[in-house]
Design goal:
Length: 446
């Protein structure tokens, strides 16, 4: 574990906080009233893991740890559709031509969406592990995916055999296409690999780097930008020679994006800053400083004037890429404390670890996990409007003081096999009893 990349560690820990399933929508939902054009884009219930912008620059798609993807009207500042299909975090998204979008997930599936359609028009499940990155070839005909099953895949979008690329020792974290159609991959094994254009016996060119690779990007002039756990962004030629390196101090890099003109590379870090790097000079021109939470994803609008970022604050933020200034307010109002009315209640303090995933009242609705409103006396996996796994639906459990206490005594994975609830136990019987008493009164519906 000590050798794992920051991406692997951070993804797993962030996923663990919000791994309950969300309901599958029967149609695209227009849930948010339009906001002023300067507003940040708010709608995800978990960190924003992935971003992509359509070729016309008007729409963006984001993927979140909340297992949803959202299609945004950027200038309207509003969500146009919420796409719920995956059974895990949406780790990667891409925009295709013809108003199509792609999502890929922790569940190992890739879904292709057509604007205006309520369900994916195509679904692929060739990977056997979480998919964490996507790339589209320059001519728009092929889709590449990187997975923690140790492979990358290249899929012809018009149909045909899928090419599976094996050779990395461990997770493949990043993929990018070169202009001539060759694929570049980077992974946990700290190797960058440039694969031959055709499937032959010729091995890939392998470049060993000092630390695991979390992100890749290809610039218009053919250079490869690679970055990862050691906080260094490296610029390499197609033959693997390193031209320059930019050290971002102690901030491991988890995302890269290249400006449309190729002059700048944006590097997102776990510390929450985004460095705008002058590529030719190999120096940081300026940094975007947000609320201090990890920035997982970023994308330039096609005219290069604006950069969108997504991160641990659950927002898609808009920035002036020329000045580094935020577009709209940088900070959001602190949400109301839902437990303020229970100040001094020990059970409420124990429950604070649960508020990221669960609400207590029907008005608040579902988050990453189902609302606990009315949970006492309710059979497991029957909360209306929430998508539970078949494994949970088959269990014979009714929630009451005894069963809730038992859940936290032995842990979710043992008591409710098949759950996506993060593994956690409460060892102190007094803490368990306080939590149960609190839930019994706070979740009453009448």
């Amino acid at each position: 574990m000590a050798q794992a990349s920051v991406l692997s560690v951070r993804l797993r820990s962030s996923r663990a906080a919000i791994r309950h399933a969300w309901s599958i929508c029967a149609a695209f939902l227009i849930l948010f009233a339009p906001l002023p054009a300067s507003a940040q884009l708010r709608g995800h219930g978990g960190p924003v893991r992935a971003l992509a912008i359509a070729a016309d620059g008007r729409m963006a798609i984001s993927g979140g740890f909340d297992q949803s993807a959202i299609l945004w009207g950027i200038d309207q500042g509003s969500a146009l559709a919420i796409l719920r299909f995956h059974d895990g975090a949406v780790n990667a998204v891409a925009a295709l031509d013809g108003g199509r979008f792609v999502t890929a997930s922790e569940d190992g599936r890739i879904a292709i969406w057509q604007g205006g359609r309520p369900e994916p028009v195509e679904v692929f499940a060739d990977h056997s592990g979480p998919i964490v990155a996507l790339a589209v070839s320059a001519d728009g005909t092929r889709l590449a995916s990187a997975s923690w099953d140790g492979t990358a895949q290249i899929r012809p979008l018009a149909g045909g055999p899928v090419r599976v690329l094996r050779g990395h020792a461990g997770n493949v974290n990043a993929v990018a296409f070169l202009a001539d159609g060759r694929l570049v991959t980077g992974g946990y094994d700290a190797t960058l690999r440039v694969w031959p254009l055709a499937e032959t016996d010729e091995p890939p060119r392998v470049v060993q780097l000092p630390s695991p690779i979390n992100a890749l990007a290809v610039t218009p002039d053919g250079e490869i930008a690679a970055a990862g756990a050691d906080s260094v962004v490296r610029f390499l030629s197609e033959d693997g020679a390193i031209r320059a390196s930019v050290d971002l101090a102690t901030n491991p890099v988890i995302g890269l994006a290249v400006s449309p003109d190729g002059r700048r590379v944006a590097a997102a870090t776990v510390a929450g800053t985004v460095a705008l790097i002058d590529k030719s000079a190999a120096k940081v021109a300026f940094s975007l400083v947000g609320p201090g939470l990890p920035v997982w994803s970023l994308a330039f609008r096609p005219d290069g004037t604006e950069l969108l970022t997504g991160g641990g604050d659950l927002l898609v933020r808009r920035w002036d890429a020329r000045t580094g200034e935020p577009i709209g307010p940088l900070s959001m109002a602190r949400p109301a404390d839902s437990l303020a009315a229970y100040k001094g209640d020990h059970g409420a303090e124990v429950f604070r670890a649960c508020v990221a995933c669960h609400t207590l009242t029907p008005e608040e609705g579902h988050r990453a996990g189902p609302t606990l409103s009315g949970v006492f006396g309710r059979r497991i996996a029957t909360a209306e409007g929430y998508n539970f796994s078949q494994a949970l639906k088959s269990l014979d459990i009714v929630w009451d003081a005894r069963t809730i206490s038992k859940l936290f005594e032995v842990g979710p994975s043992r008591y409710t096999p098949g759950t996506k609830m993060p593994e956690q136990t409460i060892n102190d019987p007094d803490d368990r009893e306080a939590l149960v008493r609190f839930l019994e009164k706070a979740t009453k519906t009448q």
